[in-house]
Amino acid sequence: MFSIRTKAPGSYARTGTLRLAHGTVETPAFVPLATKAVVKTLEVREAAELGFDMVLGNTFHLFLNPGHELIGRLGGLHRFQRWDRPIITDSGGFQVFSMGHGTVADEIKGRAAQFVGERAGAILSIEEEGVRFRSYLDGATKFMGPETSMEVQAALGSDIALVFDECTPFHADRDYTARSTERTHRWLDRCLAWHAQHGPAGQAVYGIVQGGVEEDLRRASAQEVAARDVGGIAIGGTLGENKAQMFEVVEWTVEELPEAKPRHLLGIGEVDDLVRGVELGIDTFDCAMPTRIGRHGMALIPDPERRWRVDLAKARWREVDEPILDGCPCPACAHGYSRAYVHYLLKAREQTAMRLLTIHNLAFLSRLMAELRAAIDEGRLPAAAAAVRAGAAPWHLNAET
Amino acid sequence: MFSIRTKAPGSYARTGTLRLAHGTVETPAFVPLATKAVVKTLEVREAAELGFDMVLGNTFHLFLNPGHELIGRLGGLHRFQRWDRPIITDSGGFQVFSMGHGTVADEIKGRAAQFVGERAGAILSIEEEGVRFRSYLDGATKFMGPETSMEVQAALGSDIALVFDECTPFHADRDYTARSTERTHRWLDRCLAWHAQHGPAGQAVYGIVQGGVEEDLRRASAQEVAARDVGGIAIGGTLGENKAQMFEVVEWTVEELPEAKPRHLLGIGEVDDLVRGVELGIDTFDCAMPTRIGRHGMALIPDPERRWRVDLAKARWREVDEPILDGCPCPACAHGYSRAYVHYLLKAREQTAMRLLTIHNLAFLSRLMAELRAAIDEGRLPAAAAAVRAGAAPWHLNAET
Description:
Number of helices of chain A: 16
CATH superfamily of the largest domain in chain A: Queuine tRNA-ribosyltransferase-like
Number of domains of chain A: 2
Distance between the termini of chain A: 32 Å
Largest sheet of chain A: 8 strands, parallel
Strand order of the largest sheet of chain A: 4-14-13-12-11-10-6-5
CATH topology of the largest domain in chain A: TIM Barrel
CATH class of the largest domain in chain A: Alpha Beta
Largest interface: A-B, 37 and 37 residues
Strand content of chain A: 15-25%
Oligomer: homodimer
CATH architecture of the largest domain in chain A: Alpha-Beta Barrel
C-alpha cells in the first residue's frame, strides 16, 4: 500500500505514494481536517481543488453526532460528505482523553482550543475495557473502547482507521505514562483483533506510538507497534514542552520504525514543524491550525518572525489595499481581495472572510508540501528547507533552491 | 440606457437590456443582495457564476460601516468587493425609517427581520432636512438626508443610485402618507440637484414612487417621479397587507409610468411575486428572501403549496438520502448533497450549510428569471407563468410550455 520513490540523502526524508481504497496520496502530505464531515467553511470537495488527496474525519465527533449508524445507513462517510477520495479517521482517543485530562489537554500539541464551548463533556471512568464519558452535546453517558472505535470507523468506511489509544498528557508522571502506554498496546491488539474479524475490506489500520517524553518508553512503544501487522504507524501523545523536545521525541520514534511503513504525525502542522517533520521521515500530517486560524482572522504568510501568520482582524489593516499575500496563487489571493476588505468582513462578522482565509491557508500548506516533495525528488531538500525557514514563499522554493 | 426587446401581448411584461456603466443587465432580472459589500456566505463574484448581472449594495449599512469615505479612498464599491459588473445601491431610506417606525417595519414587505439584533438604533428626528438617528453599531448620532445619501452613493460609485425617500409604513394614515409622499418628491428634486452637480459620470439615478396604498396618492406619485429626468423608477413603501393589494398598488403605479423607463420593484422576490411582477411590467427586483431563508435552513422548491420552500432544519430530513431538489442543476444539487447531510450540517451549525442553500436558492431564482425572459421572447409567457404557479421547476418551463 505504500511505496517509497525517493530517499533524501543524509536525512530520513522520503517521497512516496500511499495506495488506499479510494485513491492515492502523494507523500509527504498535509491532511486537512474534515472533523465533523466537513472542512469548516468549505465543501469537502474543495480540498481536492486546493491540492489535497486526503482529509481527516473524527471518530469521536461523528460517533456523537450524527452517529456512525446513521452515516453507515446513508452509505458511509465518503458518500455522506460527497468525497470519493481517501479519508483517514482519527480514533477518538485524543478527544475522549482531552475531556478527562481537563485543561492539561491544552499542553498537548495546542489542540485543545477546539474544545472551547464543549467542556460540558467529562470523563466518568477510564478502565481496561474503555472510557465512559458524558457527551458534550446532550449530557448522555457514552462509552468508547477499542472495539467501539473500530466499529465506528468501520461504519464510517474510512480508508485509514487509527487504533484507539490513551493520549497521555505532558504532566503525567513516568509511572502513569508507562502503564498507560502498555494499556494502549493492549488496546492496539484488541483493535487489530476486532478489525481482522469485522473491518471493512480495504481499510488500513494504523497503530499509534505513545510513551510521552521518556526516551525508553517511546522507543519501546515504537517497537511494539512496529511488531504488529499494521498498515502504518501514527505518532501520538504529548511530544514535549517545546519544539526541540517534540522533534527529539519524533526522532527517537522514527529511528525504531521500519522504513517501509507510512508514518503519520498526529496534530502537527505549523510551517516549520512540517519542514522538520519531513526531514525526520514523516509521510503525513494533520492539524487544525490552517483552518482554525483562518476562522480567527489569520492568514499564513512566509514570515518566520511572525510564526508564519498575520492577523487581519487587527485595526492596522483597515485601509491597506494590498492582497492577503502578494504573489500568492491561491483562489482567494488570485481574485485580489485586499487586506482592508478581509478586515472589514471579519469585523462585520461575515462568514465569507473565514472562508477566504481558510482557502488561502490550506492552499499555502498544499503548495508547501508539493514543493517539498519536488525538492526531495530533485535532491535539493536541504536548500528548500533552509529557504522556508528563511521566509521564502512556497511558490518560490523551486526558483530559490 | 434601457432598450426593450419584446413586449408580451396582453400584458405589461417585456424583456430588455439595461446598459450601465459596468455592463449590461438582461431584464426582467432578480438582483441578489450584497447589502454589506458581500453576498452573505458567498463571494460577490459568485453571483455571476450563478447567472446574475447585477447585485444590490446598501447605502445605510455601508455608510455606517466601513464608511463610504473609506470605500471611496479604496477605489469605490466595485473595487472594494472585487465585482466589476453593475451595482445598484439602495438609498438607505428604507433602513433609516425601519428604525423609526419600529415593529411596524415588519409590515413592510416582510423585510424587517433583517434588523434582528440591530434594534439599538433609533430615529432621533425626522425633519425636512433629513433624518437624525443613532447608529446601531456604536450608538453615535448620525444624519442622513437626500444629499448625504447621494454623496454616499457617489463615493460607492454604483451604476444605479436610488433617491432618498421616506418609506411610509402600512399603519400610517392617509394624511401622514400624503405629507410624507410630498416630502419624498421634494427629496427627489434635491437628490437630482445634488447628482447633477456632483454625481459620478455614468451613474444612473432612479426615482422612488411612494404613496402607500392610496390609489390617488400612488398614481400622483408615479406621475411626479415620471415627470423628472430620472434614469429609471423604483416602486417603494408599503404595498399593502396582502399580495392582492400589493399587486393592485403595483398596477396603479405601472399604469402611470412611461414604457421606456426601467422599473425596479423594491424588496419583492417570492417566486409567485416575481411571476406577477414580470406580468405587471417590472424589469428588476431585489429581495433578501433567497439568501436569508438559505441561512435559516430553507431551500427553494417548486411547490406553491409550501410557499416554494422546504425547511431542511426539520428533524424529518435526518435520514433522507435525496438531493436538496431532485433534478436541480445548481452547483449544490449537482454535487449531490443529500437533505440528510444538509440537515446534519445545519444542526451542527456548520456555515457550509448556509452557503450551499444560498447557492441553491439564488440559482433557483436566476434560472426562473432566465426562463421567464425566454418565455416572453418566445411569446409563451402565459403558459410559463401558469406552469410556475402550478409547481413546475424553473428548468422545466421551456419543456412544459
